[in-house]
Design a protein that fits this description.
GO molecular function, one term: Delta14-sterol reductase activity
GO cellular component, one term: nuclear inner membrane
Number of strands: 6
Largest sheet: 2 strands, antiparallel
Distance between the termini: 44 Å
Structural class: mainly alpha
Enzyme class: oxidoreductase
Pfam families: ERG4_ERG24
Radius of gyration: 22 Å
Order of helices and strands: HHHHEEHHHEEHHHHHHHHEEHHH
InterPro entries: ERG24_DHCR-like, Sterol_reductase_CS
Number of helices: 18
Length: 417
């Protein structure tokens, strides 16, 4: 039976706390984050590469546009849409929705990475100048930002034809600016094609790896061979992306899929912010070669093991790998892990993520702060995300969550935070 639409609409509109600064954040973030992307790209290519450089390096109009950029970008999206629809890999069900149903998702993102790799190797074999991606960074970023705005407008408009039980909690406040930003519809689909799930791990994340490869090839053009620092950055970040896609099924239990609507926040993050800011280290190394880490291995191990433990426990608490772990019962009937990785800190996956981010910044040396922008930004992001998790879990689990917090007092960093 479908939930009562009027009661649900009232709950969606009034019971949810507004995130990211509410209306002020919804106005400022779509303005300043795109400008930040362009600013950071310009900065990574400037001789000083200083975050405190004033006046900042401003691009000319010619540098912002190249007719090849929209062709490449839209072609890239089309390629991965085709791969998404191909009968590759398995099909997995998501968590139970409010109306009692489960959506089905194709688990073939890793196939998309492999097919992209083969395609790129063919292009290199044919002599394609992949190093030209260095010159195209700004035009590609401009196009990705434009696509993010247009796609978000489409998602906002189409959400008014969606049933109320398909709207995201917190995304139907009645404030158009905030709802456009945070996303009204939870799982927008065209037929069986899930728009949010597609964008979450595919064109932007794999595009990040491709951009890195372009930076490596540019370094080969300039210096004859890639530097050790460039190889390390490419390797660490490829490992991160490959792992996310190999374990793609785990994303079905994350906040982005389960809780957040699909609006500008996630669209821009997936299609523009990730590919053009997460790989700043590679762009930086093209212009600022470094002569010159165990951190990546440690971070990866913590990240993967803790995420796998949580995902397995959510899907099957009786599985041998998690059945012996200590838990706390909650009023909802679910149980909270208080041993294993989740007994060390409340978010060991965040700790591992931050260690990996530090690992791929260290090859850039210590002469500039810019390569560490991602580490700084990601620390702030994860602390904010942890606070969102904390509010939701406290509201959901009540006294059981208080008990868990007493058992596991540290949020992300053991003995620090």
């Amino acid at each position: 039976m479908r939930p009562n639409s009027q009661a649900l609409k009232h709950k969606l509109s009034h019971d949810s706390e507004r995130e990211f600064g509410g209306t002020l954040g919804a106005v400022c973030i779509p303005v300043f984050l795109p400008l930040t992307v362009l600013f950071l790209i310009c900065l990574s290519r400037s001789p000083e590469a200083s975050l405190f450089q004033w006046p900042p390096p401003l691009p000319s109009t010619d540098q912002l546009w190249d007719p090849l950029a929209p062709v490449l970008l839209l072609g890239w999206f089309a390629l991965h849409a085709v791969i998404y629809l191909m009968p590759l890999g398995k099909v997995s069900e998501g968590l139970v929705l409010r109306d009692g149903t489960r959506l089905k998702y194709p688990i073939n993102g890793f196939h998309g990475l492999c097919i992209s790799g083969v395609f790129l190797m063919l292009l290199l074999g044919l002599g394609a100048p992949l190093g030209y991606l260095f010159e195209l960074l700004l035009p590609l970023a401009v196009c990705a930002i434009a696509v993010s705005f247009l796609f978000s407008i489409y998602l906002y408009i189409r959400s008014f034809w969606a049933p109320s039980y398909e709207l995201a909690l917190g995304g139907n406040t009645g404030n158009p600016l905030y709802d456009f930003f945070i996303g009204r519809e939870l799982n927008p689909r065209i037929g069986d094609f899930d728009l949010k799930y597609f964008c979450e791990l595919r064109p932007g994340l794999i595009g990040w790896v491709v951009i890195n490869l372009g930076m490596l090839m540019k370094e080969v053009e300039l210096r004859g061979s890639p530097s050790l620092a460039m190889i390390l950055v490419n390797s660490f970040q490829l490992l991160y992306v490959a792992d996310a896609l190999w374990n793609e099924e785990a994303v079905l239990t994350t906040m982005d899929i389960v809780h957040d609507g699909f609006g500008f926040m996630l669209v821009f993050g997936d299609l523009a912010w990730v590919p053009f800011t997460y790989g700043l280290q590679a762009a930086f190394l093209v212009v600022h070669p470094q002569t010159l880490t165990v951190f990546c291995c440690i971070g990866y191990y913590i990240f993967r093991q803790s995420n796998s433990q949580k995902n397995q426990f959510r899907r099957d608490p009786t599985h041998p790998s998690v059945a012996r772990l200590e838990t706390i019962a909650t009023a909802t009937g679910k149980r909270l892990l208080v041993s294993g990785w989740w007994g060390l800190v409340r978010h060991p996956n965040y700790l591992g993520d931050l260690l990996m981010a530090l690992a791929w910044s260290l090859p850039c040396g210590f002469s500039h702060l810019l390569p560490y922008f991602y580490v700084i930004y990601f620390t702030v992001l994860l602390i904010h995300r942890e606070a969102r998790d904390e509010r939701q879990c406290r509201a959901k689990y009540g006294l059981a969550w208080d008990t868990y917090c007493r058992r596991v007092p540290y949020r992300i960093f053991p003995y620090i935070y």
